[in-house]
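Weekly sync, protein design subgroup
Attendees: M.S., D.O., the rotation student, P.L. (late)

Item 1: inverse folding check
M.S. brought a backbone from last month's batch and wanted to see whether the design step gives back something sensible before we order anything. D.O. pointed out we never logged the input encoding, so this time it goes straight into the notes. Structure tokens as presented (507 positions):
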């Protein structure tokens, strides 16, 4: 007995049909429990005697000639994604978690009349089923198990979407477990993310970096310009912040003598959500004593290129829409001020007055940021005139001082800091600094940030006395970088951010 029902446009079963099928399946669950009262779990046994996994059998016997018997007895389990019941022989396709499949053949001759009838009456699409029997290839050449026994491993109470259809994007995001069952791309993306993280760790290991963990609950937010999430600790009776960046703690580690450190973990920013932003996201940050932003740029290029090779086998990746994108070679490095000047047709310098920049922005219909400063206006103008024309991976170098309170001033260009942003596919993927390690200047920068906060800038950083105290004990010259893991997946796969996160936050 199998499900046969029409599905709406997004391939999820209609609500009335779901209600009817659920009632039928619940009745089967009761029947299984009653029939197997002596077996633990009834419709949900505690274990089944699996001897082989479906991917293993496919790897070993996937090329059998049609109508071949191996003599190998295997016990396998998988989810039923196709079922066809005939008089004396039933067929089912069992799917493993990685999407690999094997056919189960339930015949009257091998299991007997009672067992065959139970299969027809009790097994539905979506059930997890265990079958034991000989590994063969069918007359059509399909790798199969000719079952001598079978057992339901877990009864599905709700029906699956059509595994050959398409879920809407909203359904994919809200019910990722269904997405993983029915869509190969969803499973591929999860594996790509795992490969990326493994590659990042391997590259860091080659450069003698140490992986560390820093707090996600912090008494004071900092390390980036962003609005934090606020919570309350009952144990300490105080407000705490979900971290917006691990930077200030990782720098404490460098002060303590951990000269090369990195962390891959979650950040939380109470801001907008769109195709490139998520309130909760995975972040990589790393710091290297006696390095600078040039060394961090070279390291970042290596990290990204190695990750691409781990996923795609090459630095030329193919996005979900079929577009090829080249991440190989040496990446371009351009100056923020010089590239803006060339694109806008006038010269911009760190000495430009705020009033002049506002007038130019208004004349070109560029949005004026709240709490406008020289740096914020320069960055808005750069995004308007330059960002959209970047095609290749590009490091945008040397930013205004007032938007970069944690960055060292440029060693040879007055009025800018040694900071870069890496742009790939038109979005910012990573940022890197020559770190500000002078505690006196850092305090002055924090004070300026506090003044912005007092004027209503919700993203400005507070004065962090504990961090300043750590700096006062001496931090070596250092380079640092931060990169979004979700965005790295976007660069490699061409997917939006909600597709690269396994379970994204949705309203």
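Designed sequence read out in the meeting:
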């Amino acid at each position: 007995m199998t499900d046969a029902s029409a599905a709406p446009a997004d391939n999820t079963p209609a609500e009335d049909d779901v209600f009817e099928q659920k009632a039928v399946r619940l009745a089967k669950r009761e029947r299984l429990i009653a029939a197997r009262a002596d077996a633990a779990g009834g419709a949900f046994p505690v274990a089944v005697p699996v001897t082989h996994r479906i991917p293993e059998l496919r790897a070993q016997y996937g090329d059998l000639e049609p109508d071949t018997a191996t003599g190998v007895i295997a016990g396998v389990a998988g989810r039923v994604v196709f079922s066809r019941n005939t008089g004396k022989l039933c067929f089912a396709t069992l799917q493993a978690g990685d999407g690999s499949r094997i056919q189960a053949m339930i015949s009257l001759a091998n299991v007997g009349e009672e067992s065959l009838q139970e299969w027809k009456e009790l097994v539905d699409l979506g059930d997890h089923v265990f079958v034991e029997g000989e590994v063969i290839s069918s007359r059509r050449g399909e790798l199969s198990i000719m079952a001598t026994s079978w057992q339901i491993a877990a009864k599905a109470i709700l029906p699956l979407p059509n595994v050959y259809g398409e879920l809407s994007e909203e359904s994919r995001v809200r019910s990722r477990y269904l997405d993983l069952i029915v869509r190969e791309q969803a499973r591929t993306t999860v594996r790509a993310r795992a490969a990326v993280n493994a590659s990042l760790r391997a590259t860091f290991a080659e450069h003698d970096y140490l992986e560390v963990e820093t707090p996600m609950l912090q008494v004071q937010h900092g390390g980036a310009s962003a609005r934090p999430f606020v919570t309350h600790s009952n144990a300490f009776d105080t407000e705490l912040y979900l971290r917006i960046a691990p930077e200030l703690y990782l720098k404490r580690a460098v002060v303590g003598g951990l000269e090369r450190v990195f962390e891959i973990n979650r950040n939380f920013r109470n801001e907008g959500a769109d195709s490139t932003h998520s309130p909760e996201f995975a972040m990589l940050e790393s710091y290297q004593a006696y390095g600078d932003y040039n060394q961090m740029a070279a390291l970042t290029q290596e990290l990204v290129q190695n990750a691409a090779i781990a996923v795609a086998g090459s630095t030329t990746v193919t996005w979900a829409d079929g577009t090829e994108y080249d991440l190989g070679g040496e990446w371009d490095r351009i100056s923020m001020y010089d590239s803006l000047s060339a694109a806008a047709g006038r010269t911009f310098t760190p000495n430009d007055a705020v009033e002049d920049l506002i007038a130019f922005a208004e004349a070109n219909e560029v949005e004026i940021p709240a709490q406008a400063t020289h740096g914020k206006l320069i960055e808005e103008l750069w995004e308007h005139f330059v960002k959209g024309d970047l095609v290749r991976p590009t490091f945008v170098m040397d930013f205004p001082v007032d938007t970069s309170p944690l960055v060292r001033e440029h060693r040879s260009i007055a009025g800018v800091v040694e900071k870069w942003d890496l742009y790939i596919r038109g979005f910012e993927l990573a940022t890197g600094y020559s770190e500000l390690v002078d505690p006196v200047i850092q305090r002055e920068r924090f004070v300026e940030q506090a003044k912005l906060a007092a004027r209503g800038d919700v993203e400005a950083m507070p004065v962090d006395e504990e961090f300043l105290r750590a700096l006062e004990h001496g931090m070596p010259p250092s380079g640092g970088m931060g990169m979004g893991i979700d965005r790295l997946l976007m660069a490699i796969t061409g997917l939006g951010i909600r597709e690269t996160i396994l379970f994204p936050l949705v309203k």
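Discussion: The first strand starts at residue 68 and ends at 85. The chain has a mean pLDDT of 92.
Action: P.L. to compare against the previous round before Friday.
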